[in-house]
Every structure is written in C-alpha cells, then in structure tokens.
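Lecture 7 notes. Example A: sequence first, then its structure tokens.
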Amino acid sequence: MLLMFIILSYDPTTLVYPPFGHTMGYHSATPFEVRLLLGSRLSFISPYGISAVKLKSEDIPGIDDDDELTVYCCNTGCHQIVYNKSLLDVGIYGKFGRGVGEFWSPTGIAASPDGWVWVADAGNHRVVKLLNTGDILLWVQSIGSFGCAELEFDSPYDVACDFENNIYVTDEGNGRVQIIDSSGSLVRMIDGLYRPKGIAVIAGGSPWNYRGNDFVVVLCEDGIKKFSMDGKLLGERRGEDFGLERYRFAFCMIDYYGHIWVTDRENGCIHKFDKDLKYITSFGRRGSRDKEFMDPRGITIWRRFGQVFVVDATVIDYYWIGIDGYIKGCFPPIFSSDKPGTDIVFFITEPAIMDAKIYDSKGEMVREFLNNYEETPFEHYLIWDGRSNRGEVVPPGDYKIEFVLTPTYSSKDKFKKILDTQVMVE
C-alpha cells in the first residue's frame, strides 16, 4: 500500500508534458508508436544525440506555428540520422559505411535555423556537414579523419553550434574540444580534458539568450566544466560536489536563462544547474513510467519556448519546462498574538511568476503578499508579520499559506504549481 502511494504521488514538475491539443496526447516516441506509424521502415537501436530547431525556411510570418520544430536524432545502432519532415512523416538519412551518405555509430548532432546539420560520426573519426533543403538532407562535406593533429579526431562524441555556425566538437580520444568555423577551418582548441563527451554552447549574440550569456559547457568523465568562449576555465563541478557517489554524465544543453541541463545515465535522471554551475535540482528517476528514465542520453532545448526533447534508451520524450518547488517550513510554525510573525522558507526550481496569499480556516483571504512577482530559483524567505491586509494582527486560528507559481515559458498558460502549508496563531 505504501509503495502504491509513493508511485501515485510521484509527479515532479520541473518538466511537464505538453497539453493534448499540442501533441494529440503523444509525449513519447516509443518503439510501438514508431512501428505503428512507419511499420518496419524504422527501428530505434541505441539512439544518442538529439537536436531541435525552427528552420528559417518554415518560419513563415503570420502563421502561428513557431513551436513546430524539426528534430534530428542520431539512431546510432542503425548508423543513420532520423528527423521529422512533418508531424506524421519521418525522414531517414544514411547507412553503415565510410563514404558519402554513410556513418559508423554517429553519436552527437547539432542543427541551425539555416538548415545546416553537423554530425559527430564517431566510428569514422570525422564530423559530417549536411543541409536540410526543406524536403531532404543533402551531404555537404566531411571534416577530419583519424589522428591527433589539427582537424583530426579520435572518436568525436558530440557537436554543438553557435548562431554564427561555428561548431564545437568533443574529440573524446584526444582529450580536447576543437572549435571550427563555418568554412571548416580550425579556430581554436581546448585541450587537457579527460574523455570529453557532451558539449553545449550559448553565445552572447544568440537569440533567446536572457542575459547575453556567453560560455561553453563540456562534460568529462571527471565532471562538468565551464569555459569562456576563448577557452578559459571558468568553473567545474564533480558529482561528489552535490551528493553523487556514482554518475555518468552524457549530454548537456543550456536554456534561455543560461541554466545547464545534464543527463546522467548512471542515476536515470537529468541534473539542472544555474549558469555558475550551482546545483538546482534533478528531474526523473530510474524506471519506465512517466517522468522516469532507463538510460537518459541526448537532450536538446528550443530556448524560445522551453521545449525539451530527451533520448532515453529506445524512447524520445517530449517536455515543456515547467516549475517545481516546496515549502521547507514556517519558523516558528506557531506564534501568538502578542508576538506575531513567522518566516516562510521555500525553494523553487525555475524562474516563476509568483502570487502569495494567506487564508483563514473559512477559506477567506486575510493577506496578499505578492502579485505577479518575478522570483528566481533556489531558496527564498517570506516574512509574515502576522497581520491582515488591514494591518491588524489576525485572531487565533489555523491559517493556510499558499504560493501559486506560474512558469515563464510556453507552459505558463497551461500549468501552475501550487505550494501550501499551515501555520497556527494562538
């Protein structure tokens, strides 16, 4: 009975499922759904990297479809790239091999609104550049071969791109990141890394960049590292720093606020940090139910609307960034009329629009603190002096403190998080 209660009560909301009207009820691309839609034409075998983008060629002024994205995924075990041409049409590009139009265990992928697609073709020790014409993917060029010199690779794992179409490639076997411009020339390297894997970048001039953040995040086997755009180490975190004994970081992404999201294959979850690598929260747990992960790998975020896609073993999950939190308590939880007041301590996981109200035992509001107040993640304090909106000390009784949290992304019109607790006045 207790186990059933735990299962039913589990519902984290840092990420939420999109509403039915947006997805017709589908928030996961499972093997069953793929077979139902495409028959035997496609099988997901060990998918890894994923990238989502709004193509400029499909961004037509006056048409309300800005949240309809093109999503690319490395179907690694089949040596191919899978992408959606429309809601019900899927494109497949590539096969096993070493030549043009062929891949060998591609792991990472990045895409730009201009239609460019870059693939970390790990088994072939190269990066492949493709072009989405709006209908099909075309091979443009390959960069690199096996080796340790400039523009050579040893099992490139992941690739990220900035708004100028520079690419950032984790060269896992050589322990470095190579930054390459749009013409295929080397810009710089970040070396001395221990088996770098996932990479994400946010550049100062990028659209949908709240504070003009400008940095690179690299996941290595010895932790998460943040670099300036010119390769200076700005900070690093190991799993042990936030309570993990074991971890296996895989892929990462940076959202509109500069928050950093990291998939953890060992613990079956996604960790979230602020732009300074301060730990905020973790989303998900090991399992196969809703909001659980068996083996989370690639992650991508379309920053404008907070749309999130996560690759999990043989499934691709689709979320919107929501909001979660909890009230730690009231200190003191009981106060008297001659010594009125309490400190309310709460924690939230996302920037939020917040309303805070206090109700008496009859459900009537006696005090309104905040109305459409913008709050940031982490722990906060709210002091109630024990008085009503009229400035009078409230009479003895039980009072409910209620916070209503509204996300700042697309989910704001569809989802609110309500936190509440009780305080007693003697």
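Example B, a different protein, same format:
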Amino acid sequence: MDLEEAFTVVDTPVHLAGQSDDALLRQIRRRKEFSAPRSTLSPATGLEKDIHLRPLEALHWLSYVTRPRYQDDVLDRYLWWGLLRYLGFFTHDYSHSRLPELALSDAGRRIAGNQRRVTSEEMGIAFGAALAARWFGETGAATLRTVVDIDVALDARFVFGPSTAVEHIGTRRPDYLLIGGDQRDPGRCRLRVLECKGTKTPGNAVSQLARAVGQLDGVTVGSRVPRGLATSMVTGESRTSYLALNTEDDDEPSYEVDGDTIDRVGNFRFLSDRVDVTAAEITSASIRASWAMLADFGGNLPAIQRWAPEVMLDRIRRRPRVRETFETPVGPVRGTSLDFGFGRERLVVRYGVAVPVDDQLSGDSAGELLEAQQEFADRLEQSRGSERPPASREVYSATADGTVFSLVRGERG
C-alpha cells in the first residue's frame, strides 16, 4: 500500500457495523463475566446500529488520549511506530454496503502475537473514543470536549494532576472520564465515563462487553455514578465492527464552571476526611488539568507549566520542540510535526492546537481560554458537512477542545 492509497483509506467515510440493542443486552446477561451496574443498562443512544466515520478521527483520538502515558525519551518512537503501523493497517471492503467497510490490509494481517493484542487494544481506545464523541452528540445534551485517562488520574491522585477529580475509586473502574460542554449553557459541563475494549475475535467481544459494563459504576463524581458507555471493538481480518451499551441517568446533572472557579482549584486536593468537595470543584479541577494535556499535544511547554499541577509536572517531562504555525481548513494551527521518508515520497504529521486556543493557553485567564474553546467548538460544528477536496494531499481531524491532527503527503527534495 502506497501513501496515496493509505490517505484514501483513512480519510474516506466508512460504514462501521455495530450492534446496540435488546438482543445484545440478553446476550451479555447470560455471560459469566457479567456484573450488573447500579444504573439501568440500555442500548447506547445514537449507536443502536451502524454509523459512518473517517478512520482518521479514530487515529486522532488515539494519538491524543494516549500521549500522556509516554515519557519524552520514548514519545517520538511511540508516535513514529504507532502511526506507521496504523496508517496502513486497514483497507476498504465493498462487499457488505454502499460505503466501504474496514478490513485488514496485507500489512495488518501480518501483525501477530503480542503486537496483534496491543493493536486490538489500541484500536479499542481509538474507536471507543470516537464512538463516545458520537454518543455525546446524539444525546443532544453535550458535545464531547475532553477524554481523560482515569488510570493516569488515579496514579497521580488527580485527573492529570494532584489529588482528585475522582471522588471514589472502585476496584473495577472505567478507563476514561469524559467531559462534555452543555449545549444549553456554555458555562456548564457534563461528566460521563467510558470503558472501551478491543479484540480481533468476534466471539470475544460479547464477553469483553459483559466485563466492561460492570466497570461503569467503579467511579462516583460528586456522590453520583455518572452516565457511562461501554464499547468492544472487533478488528477482524475481513470486517471491523463494534458492540456498545450505555447506562442511563434520567436526571443527569450539569456542573457550572467559570474562570474564577478554575483558578481557585489550581491547588485542589481531595482528602478522605473532607466532606465539602463539590462536583463543580471536581469538574473545574479536571478541566484545568486537561488544558495541560491540550498544551502537551501542541508542544506548548510554557502552557504545561502554567496549567499542570505539580504531580503532572513530575510525571511528564518534555524537551523543547520546534513549533510552527500552519494553515488548515479549520483555521491556523500551532504545534509540532514529524517528518518521514517513503522512497520518493515524504509524510509530515502535525500535532497542533487552534491558534486562538493556543494563545489563551499561554495566557493567564481561565475564562478567556474557556471562551476561545467554545468559539472553536462552535466554528467546528458549523464546518461539519462542508465539501472536502477530493484526493487531497493533506487530511486532517479536529476535536471540539481545539486539537488538530493532520497528515501531509509530498515529494522528497
């Protein structure tokens, strides 16, 4: 597979086969791995049947969500290895639907053993986050802004920082905390959780999902179990598909956040004997720390220093990187890039943040940063569905909090 074909595969909307219905509920309840969550379990809103998405969106989420796990000495190697592996991992199959479905390419089929297991797990993260974004949007209540790794949060006793944005830790917990902007009130956010699995074998997916739903109530936020989504992604040789279920909350709360609150929780610490911690404080602390994650994606080291709590600074050390500003269909973006050679061709991979958001990351006003993110999210929503140039030499994906991931194909000089 050459670069042109790989670009076509990752940038073309595909038909992603899925199941989320009462029949699936009956299946998982019969599995020995099933442990019923405290909240009502039901088909996942907006994911009840097949969806369409670009694989590039999933690869973007993977690079964003997993980046904080890697120290600087292995980060470039991870980005290089992961990108090259997944850029040519899929091919198109037209035998099941009008839009292509994803099957494994010849290169993808050659991945075996432990590397195949890791690949399945990472595709579970990539597509699980993409499904969560669709799920948030389909509820009509919130737009997914940030995906926070709970394992990283719990190790550091904070969501990417000191002490806790997670009030109670269960022995079995979900993978990610999801922060969404309330569509009815930009000054409020909603918190949910995601547990995502991945396998190459369809027969394992139901058992994985049965375990996953039992983990959704392993965390409480503000004394409540947040609404949750469980997914299992199957990257089989001939077809890529998903299973999904969610827990319900008919009275799902939203939490007020503002610049003053976010500034106040810069040194927030939750102690076991404190009883006055509010969900709004927890939400604000999570958002503040997520900005350090955003700055890390764009290589903005001063902004990491500005927003990251001490524990995150101790855990994630980055060396200075060359930053540049580049134009994209969603506006100017500032960040870093990696350059790869493929025979006579070259691939440039860009990791960046929308310039208005990056400017505010470098500032001191949490309120102005919130406004910049809201403006970018609104502009991104307005641009969805616009015509995309065919056979472009640049493909890109953007998230509502301001990150932009792009691939540029060119000739070697």
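Note on Example B: The two ends are 22 Å apart (CA to CA). The longest helix spans residues 113-139.
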